[in-house]
């Protein structure tokens, strides 16, 4: 039996630094900073069988995501694929691994495996790499490791916007004095969080789906308020359980950047130590909200409430995924 770290931060760090092939899929490491490379990879991702591979943009990930035996410079210099058994292949052999996983491209993989074909393909790929800087630029000239963190900050702004609306939804519906006092107290904290995050996330980085997050947040608060205090407190407990994990992951991302700061980032970063302090304080506040809600609930959840909590948790996860890119 494997041991599980008791410290949630250690658990998050372990999950981030673990080998990408823990999922049992082969992992493709590509250069997302190269327009032509990015377009070709997008073609493979959309193809039948594309979901059977993991796809990792080496230009925009944190170093730990590359796994063992592969650094960013090497990953940007040539296409790499890590097989499910952990073996790394590169160049033309990496393309063959991709083609083999895609039904409509397997004919090309079979041709590539004919005697003498793979060395010729690798020679052609090496020639392509010589001219690639004409439109890609020198790999590593500007570090893109800040991008995942900035995407997470976008989700924070959307999340805090939604949190404010959750408590406003509760206050709009509930007439229970204890629920209203609870919601008003925590609303003030979420409003402070939102104001602080807005100082970090410039308007151009904010989610374009904010109107949707406002409406969905209001409904997430208003609907359970129709069914009484127990439903409200269960909802807040479910939301804040997710938010605790979400902020903890971001603290780990910041720690990785603090250990290996970008020398020349193409994306402007806020002051990392200050940002870490802010996010950790937000996390602790959300934990306090969760614990307060849990302490106010009496008895076990029925199946309806348990199902609602699952919907809230899964919905929060889905919203974060969308916010990272929209």
Secondary structure: elements and pairs:
Layout lengths: L7 H10 L9 E4 L4 H12 L7 E4 L14 H6 L2 E3 L5 E3 L1 H10 L4 H7 L4 H15 L1 H4 L9 H28 L3 H24 L9 H16 L3 H31 L12 H25 L6 H23 L1
Parallel strand pairs: 1-2
Antiparallel strand pairs: 1-3, 3-4
Helix pairs in contact: 1-11, 4-5, 8-9, 8-10, 8-11, 8-13, 9-12, 10-11, 11-12, 11-13
Name its key features.
4-stranded mixed β-sheet, 13 helices, 2 domains, mainly alpha
N- to C-terminal distance: 40 Å
Q: Secondary-structure element order, as H and E?
A: HEHEHEEHHHHHHHHHH
Instruction: Give the second-level CATH assignment, the architecture of the largest domain.
Output: Up-down Bundle
CATH topology description of the largest domain: Ferritin
Shape: elongated
Total strands: the figure is 4
In order across it, which strands form the biggest sheet? 2-1-3-4
Low-confidence stretches: 1-18
Beta-strand residue percentage: under 5%
Most strands sheet: 4 strands, mixed
Return the domain count.
Answer: 2
What average pLDDT do the residues reach? 84
What level of helicity do the residues show? Answer: 55-70%
CATH class descriptor of the largest domain: Mainly Alpha
Radius of gyration: 23 Å
Q: Which structural class is indicated by helix and strand composition?
A: mainly alpha
Helices, by number, come to 13
